[in-house]
TrEMBL record:
Enzyme Commission code(s) on record: 1.1.1.205
Binding residue positions for K(+): 314, 316, 319
Single GO term (MF): IMP dehydrogenase activity
Name of one Pfam family that matches: IMPDH
Enzyme class: oxidoreductase
Cited PANTHER family: INOSINE-5'-MONOPHOSPHATE DEHYDROGENASE, INOSINE-5-MONOPHOSPHATE DEHYDROGENASE RELATED
Record-linked PROSITE patterns: CBS, IMP_DH_GMP_RED
Protein name: IMP dehydrogenase
Cofactor section: K(+)
Family under the similarity heading: Belongs to the IMPDH/GMPR family.
Protein species of origin: Luoshenia tenuis
Length: 504
C-alpha cells in the first residue's frame, strides 16, 4: 500500500509570523544577516559565509557573470548557469574572479556602420545610454567612438543615419590606459567633468568603462562577498552527466562553490557526482546538491557528502513539474521537514549541513518566513530575473517594460542534463515555461528594499540574527479568510506605486 503523509503540504502564503517582545536594541540597523553557505562541524564556523541570505538560481535567464558581480557586491552569491558549454561557463566564472570593482566590461556595443535605429533599439533593450562603438561591435573591439544621448536627436535625424556620422569619435574622446587605477580614473572623470571614461590597451582595444555614477556605489559596498584575495566570490552549476570534464574546468577558473543542478536530488547520480569530487579534490571543493522535499532525501545527500542541500520541487514560478509529472510538495511543508532532519543530523553527527530554500517565494515577507522556518539561505530565480543585471532582454509588452524569463525545463532552454533520467540526451517533455516578468530596475535598489523588510520583521519578532530567528520565531498557520483579511480590502484603491511587493 502507498504511503500517505498525515497532513496536506502548505505554501509560505499559508503562514504568518507572530510578533515577539522587542527590546530597544531591536532596530533594523542592528540586524546581522550573515549565514553559513557550506557545512561545518560543531564548535567551528562555516568556511564560506554569506553576508546576506540570498543566492541567484542556476538559470540561463538569471545568473551570468554580470549578475554574479552585482550580487556579490551586495553580499550574496550567484551560481553561474551550467546549461552552456564548459568553456563558456568557465569563462564567465573567470570574468567574475578577474573583475576589478569599478571597471565595467561594456555590455552596450555597436558597429560604426549600424544606424540610429539600431542605437535606439539597443538602448531600449539594455536600458543604458552610453554605447561603445567598436570596429567589430564587441565589448573588446578596437574603440572608434562613443554614442550617448547627447549625440543625437531623434526628431531631427533620420533613423537610417550611420553611427559613424554622429558618434563622438575616438580622437575627440578622453581615454586612459588599461592599467589606470580606479582612483586615478575617477580623478580624470571629475577633473574633465565626464560621465564615463574608456580604458583601452596599447592597440586601442576597449578593455573597461569607468562611470561617474558608480563612484559612490563602490564606496558603499561594505557587505561585499570577497575571497581571501579580495576577489568577488562566485558559484557555478554542474550536472550529473559531464561532471568529470566540467568540474575541473570550473575549479581551474576559480569557482568558490559548485552546485548540482537537478530537478530531483534523491538519486544515485548525485552521489556518483559528489564521490568524484571528493576523490579528486577531497573537501577543498565545496558542492551543494538537491533538490529534495523530505527527510529521506536530505539524509541521503548529507551522508553522500553534500556541503549544502537545496529544498524544493515544482514551486518555481516558471516550473510545471507538478502539472507534468505530479511530483513535488508545498514549499513550506518540505522546508519544515528537511530543516528538522538537518537539526537531528547535527545533533547525531556534529556536522551542520546548511539548507537552501529554492522556490515558492512570491512576496518579500516569504523570505523572512523561509528563514524563520529554518532555511539558512534562499535561492531566487524570478526575483533576480527582473533586474537590469539579469542576462535577458528588456522588452515592451502592452506599454509596460518587461524582462524575458524562462525555465531550464522549457523548450527555449532545453537543459536536458537537468531533467534526463536515462541518458537520452534530450528533453523528453517540457517542465518549464517561457514568460515575462515586470522589469524592476537595479538589483541594488530592490535587494536593499527587500532586506529592509526582512530586518524590520526580524525586529518585530525580537531577534537580531538568522540563528535567533530560527530558534525564537513563532509561526501560525492561517485560514483562507485571514489571508484575504491580511491585504487591503473593502476599499477602492487609488493608484499605488508600492514597489517590491509582489513578483507575479
Amino acid at each position: 500500500m502507498a504511503y500517505y503523509f498525515d497532513e496536506p503540504s502548505h505554501t509560505f502564503g499559508e503562514y504568518l509570523l507572530v510578533p515577539g517582545y522587542s527590546s530597544t536594541d531591536c532596530v533594523p540597523t542592528n540586524v546581522n544577516l550573515q549565514t553559513p553557505l557550506v557545512k561545518f562541524k560543531k564548535g567551528e564556523q562555516s568556511p564560506i559565509r554569506l553576508n546576506i541570505p540570498l543566492v541567484s538560481a542556476i538559470m540561463q535567464a538569471v545568473s551570468d557573470d554580470k549578475m554574479a558581480i552585482a550580487l556579490a557586491r551586495e553580499g550574496g552569491l550567484s551560481f553561474i548557469y551550467g546549461s552552456q558549454s564548459i568553456a563558456d561557463e568557465a569563462a564567465m566564472v573567470a570574468r567574475v574572479k578577474s573583475y576589478k570593482a569599478g571597471f565595467v566590461t561594456s555590455d552596450s556595443n555597436i558597429k560604426p556602420d549600424q544606424t540610429l535605429e539600431d542605437v535606439l533599439a539597443l538602448t531600449q533593450r539594455t536600458g543604458h545610454s552610453t554605447i561603445a562603438v567598436t570596429e567589430d561591435g564587441s565589448a573588446n573591439g578596437k574603440l572608434l567612438g562613443i554614442v550617448t544621448s547627447r549625440d543625437y536627436r531623434v526628431s531631427r535625424m533620420p533613423l537610417d543615419l550611420k553611427v559613424s556620422e554622429f558618434m563622438t569619435k575616438f580622437e575627440d574622446l578622453i581615454c586612459a590606459d588599461e592599467t589606470t587605477s580606479l582612483k586615478t580614473a575617477n580623478d580624470i572623470i571629475w577633473e574633465h567633468k565626464l560621465n564615463s571614461l574608456p580604458l583601452v590597451d596599447k592597440q586601442g582595444h576597449l578593455k573597461y568603462m569607468v562611470f561617474r555614477k558608480d563612484y559612490a556605489s563602490h564606496k558603499e559596498n561594505e557587505n561585499e562577498l570577497l575571497d581571501s584575495h579580495k576577489r568577488y566570490m562566485v558559484g557555478a552549476g554542474i550536472n550529473t552527466r559531464d561532471f568529470a570534464e566540467r568540474v575541473p574546468a570550473l575549479v581551474e577558473a576559480g569557482a568558490d562553490v559548485l552546485c548540482i543542478d537537478s530537478s530531483e536530488g534523491f538519486t544515485e547520480w548525485q552521489k556518483i557526482t559528489i564521490d568524484f569530487i571528493r576523490q579528486k579534490y577531497g573537501d577543498t571543493v565545496k558542492v551543494g546538491a538537491g533538490n529534495v522535499v523530505d527527510k529521506e532525501g536530505f539524509l541521503f545527500l548529507a551522508k553522500a557528502g553534500a556541503d549544502f542541500v537545496k529544498v524544493g520541487i515544482g514551486g518555481g514560478s516558471i516550473c510545471i513539474t507538478r502539472e507534468q509529472k505530479g511530483i513535488g510538495r508545498g514549499q513550506a511543508t518540505a522546508l519544515i521537514e528537511v530543516v528538522k532532519a538537518r537539526d537531528e543530523y547535527f545533533e547525531e553527527t556534529g556536522v551542520y549541513v546548511p539548507v537552501c530554500s529554492d522556490g515558492g517565494i512570491v512576496y518579500d515577507y516569504h523570505m523572512t518566513l523561509a528563514l524563520a522556518m529554518g532555511a539558512d539561505f534562499i535561492m531566487l530565480g524570478r526575483y533576480f530575473s527582473r533586474f537590469d543585471e539579469s542576462p535577458t532582454n528588456r522588452v515592451m509588452v502592452n506599454g509596460t517594460y518587461m524582462k524575458e524569463y524562462w525555465g531550464e525545463g522549457s523548450n527555449r532552454a532545453r537543459n536536458w542534463q537537468r531533467y534526463d533520467m536515462g541518458g537520452d540526451k534530450k528533453l523528453s517533455f517540457e517542465e518549464g515555461v517561457d514568460s515575462y516578468v515586470p522589469y524592476a530596475g537595479s538589483l541594488k535598489d530592490n535587494v536593499t528594499l527587500s532586506l529592509n523588510k526582512v530586518r524590520s520583521t526580524m525586529c518585530n519578532c525580537g531577534v537580531l540574527s538568522i540563528p535567533e530567528l530560527q530558534r525564537n520565531a513563532r509561526i501560525t498557520l492561517v485560514s483562507a479568510t485571514s489571508i484575504v483579511e491580511g491585504g487591503s480590502h473593502d476599499v477602492v484603491l487609488k493608484d499605488s506605486n508600492i514597489s517590491g511587493y509582489s513578483y507575479k
